[in-house]
Design brief:
Oligomer: single chain
Number of strands: 19
CATH architecture of the largest domain: 3-Layer(aba) Sandwich
Structural class: alpha/beta
Distance between the termini: 25 Å
Number of helices: 26
């Protein structure tokens, strides 16, 4: 996605780094993936080659994904090697690892099954080196997978101040995925091709870091030009010191001159990126996930890197296969530079501190109890340190109930709160009970407490205009914004009516959607069947598709009325095959994201007024609604029986989508984020 650094968030224009600070950059960081580290002599020769070419003596920090078994460096050579297998080869490190495992087993430290991260063990070593990015002169990544180099480059930008170290990726890959190549160029990474061929020795990368596709054979000069444009030098180089690694394969190949790429006389690249700390509930298979993805895409389009902290504060172990699935899901949808997914902590010291806080500030209301529940999420040390040291420019918090967890990580800085919806309304609609009194709390008390917590934010966003009006009674109006992060959706082309007609309902797993579907199944469907029989249109009986995780919790008496699909990662194909979208919504707060999707796909819809809640009045008037079950069923029959009616309904949704886009929600988001820039 193209980035806009001039018209996006307020630009951070880096000034030239003073000479004294440039001279303080006395470190080089070299990172080797599994494919390079399989032969310790290759690692040794590459390090020696860098050292010999640079006139200025640098401290070399080396991270190896695997065990380094090459020759030793002398004490005076200023090389420190850290590896995934053993950071230090002595017994102390093995005993240290064993001690940490014991402490986690006895719930002193956070267990590995309570959190996950998009960085492996070796990348966390790199992360710790990046904490001192102000001392790094250059970062060189030797990898067979350019996407791995992109991961390291993102970390450099997270922790650099105004200027980033020289970033170089050395790869034997014959081609680079275009999206990866664009991101590398965006982050000012120089990509050089290694003349050594290692296809038979490649270690397959993880699924979350796929190898770039190879160019088709026989592509001709066009493909050759495309490949050469991905690299900063047209010809491959040799990167090994010939005295340390003699090779006949590299005879006649030009040796890289590191002074041309990372020489001390070269200016360091500018860091003009925005770093956004993003707190959210760990929900992706629902409407909230759609908005998270939309916001993340907008941030990335503005030239921002994200630190994504996702919270699911329940005592459920994070299995390795689930952690891998969540990582792939997050990188596909949000694409954060640094990502943490957190479960309920099982660290006794941490939980005792939370218990002490609970005793001092007893959560007497449902609002406070929800806040305390999410504060139990794990806070591994590496996450706390990574956030504390990152050069954050914006803090974006989603939902008020993540505030207590995020308080010490925000550390008194200004932030933007995306309320998403007023939870007090949700608690009333689902009949929530206070865990202390076993009774419901008064709505006025719930609302007052929620607004007092939300008022901590410097700026607040609401996806429901009516709820923003309610909040204006407690919070100054100049701090409130009506912002719906519209997803990027292309309209579906018109289609002929199917035989049988295909109807669609989308619903995630929550109690509001259970109420909605029970209303539809118990009141609308019987009326629909009666109308079809009375009009003699039994042959037009539709097939109703139900998509979403709600399918797993509904009783068989309800699910048998639908063709259930469960969670569908990409709904576009489902919408394209649909003749009519149904929005039978009678409960819920905030905004019905399924309504946004139906309008943006420009499909004929039948909706209730509650499905259109919170939208601008002109949008609701353009789309229209039916609240009576009989009228709702009659609208379905009318649309199924007339092409003209379907065309008219499609024009109404197209008008609603246009009116939504004319609201310029992202301009409002930009103004709000500029107001909270750190």
């Amino acid at each position: 996605m193209p980035r806009d650094d001039t018209n996006g968030l307020a630009a951070l224009v880096p000034a030239a780094e003073p000479l004294a600070q440039q001279q303080s950059r006395h470190r080089l960081l070299l990172v080797f993936d599994e494919n390079y580290s399989r032969n310790g002599y290759v690692v040794f020769a590459a390090i020696r080659h860098v050292q010999r070419q640079l006139a200025v003596p640098f401290d070399c920090r080396v991270v190896v994904r695997g065990k380094y078994d090459g020759p030793r460096f002398g004490w005076g050579e200023r090389v420190r090697i850290r590896s995934r297998a053993a950071v230090a080869p002595g017994m102390e490190r093995r005993l240290g690892d064993r001690l940490r495992r014991k402490l986690a087993r006895f719930h002193v430290l956070e267990a590995a099954d309570r959190w996950t991260c998009n960085l492996g063990a070796a990348e966390r070593l790199v992360l710790r080196e990046m904490f001192d990015a102000a001392r790094l002169h250059a970062v060189i990544v030797f990898t067979a997978d350019p996407a791995y180099g992109l991961t390291i480059a993102r970390l450099a930008h997270l922790y650099a101040d105004r200027l980033v170290p020289h970033l170089v990726v050395v790869t034997p890959a014959g081609a680079i995925d275009p999206a990866t190549a664009a991101d590398l160029r965006w982050l000012r990474v120089r990509v050089l091709r290694d003349a050594r061929n290692m296809p038979s020795r490649l270690v397959p990368p993880r699924e979350s870091q796929p190898m770039p596709p190879r160019l088709p054979e026989g592509g001709g000069i066009t493909d050759l030009l495309a490949v050469s444009s991905m690299f900063d030098a047209s010809a491959p180089f040799s990167f090994l010191d010939p005295e340390s690694f003699p090779s006949h394969d590299l005879r006649g190949c030009e040796t890289v001159c590191w002074l041309d790429w990372i020489g001390p006389h070269l200016p360091l690249p500018e860091r003009v990126r925005h770093v956004v700390l993003f707190f959210r509930p760990d929900w992706m298979a629902c409407g909230s996930g759609t908005l998270f993805e939309s916001v993340a895409h907008w941030f990335r389009a503005q030239g921002a890197l994200l630190i994504d902290v996702a919270i699911w504060p329940y005592a459920v172990k994070l299995r390795p296969e689930e952690a891998e699935r969540k990582l792939i899901e997050e990188q596909d949808s949000i694409g954060a530079a640094l990502y943490f997914s957190l479960r309920c902590s099982n660290s006794v010291p941490y939980l005792l501190r939370r218990l002490a806080a609970t005793v001092c500030w007893a959560p007497r209301s449902i609002i406070r109890q929800t806040l305390a529940l999410h504060a139990r999420a794990a806070k591994p040390h590496i996450m706390r340190e990574a956030i504390r040291r990152a050069r954050i420019t914006h803090i974006y918090v989603n939902h008020y109930f993540t505030l207590d967890f995020a308080r010490d990580l925000i550390a008194g800085r200004t932030f933007f709160l995306d309320t998403h919806d007023i939870q007090a309304v949700n608690h009333v609609h689902i009949g929530a009970r206070n865990r202390l009194t076993r009774r419901g709390d008064r709505f006025t008390r719930l609302l007052r407490e929620e607004m007092s917590l939300a008022a901590r934010a410097a700026q607040l966003g609401f996806v429901n205009r009516d709820e923003m009006g309610v909040a204006a009674r407690f919070i100054p109006a100049d701090r409130l914004s009506f912002i719906i992060p519209l997803p990027e959706i292309r309209a579906c082309p018109p289609k002929a009516l199917g035989r049988p007609p295909q109807l669609l309902i989308v619903a995630s797993n929550n109690r509001h959607n259970e109420q909605n579907l029970h209303w539809f199944a118990g009141q609308v469907l019987p009326a629909l069947g009666t109308l079809l029989r009375q009009s003699g249109q039994q042959s037009m009986a539709p097939q109703i598709h139900l998509c979403g995780e709600i399918c797993s919790v509904l009783p068989p008496t309800v699910t048998r009325l639908f063709k259930t699909h469960g969670f569908v990662p990409d709904l576009r194909s489902v919408y394209e095959a649909t003749d009519l979208v149904l929005l039978p919504v009678v409960a819920g707060a905030g905004l019905a994201i399924k309504t946004l999707e139906a309008l943006l796909y420009e499909k004929p819809v039948v909706a209730t007024s509650h499905a259109l809640r919170g939208l601008p009045n002109e949008v609701a008037a353009a789309v229209g609604y039916e609240n009576d079950p009989g009228a709702f069923a009659a609208a379905i029959v009318r649309l199924l029986g007339s092409q003209e009616s379907r065309d008219r309904s499609r024009e109404c949704t197209r008008l609603g989508a246009r009116l939504l886009r004319e609201q310029r929600f992202y301009e409002r988001l930009k103004q709000a984020m500029d107001a909270v820039r750190l």
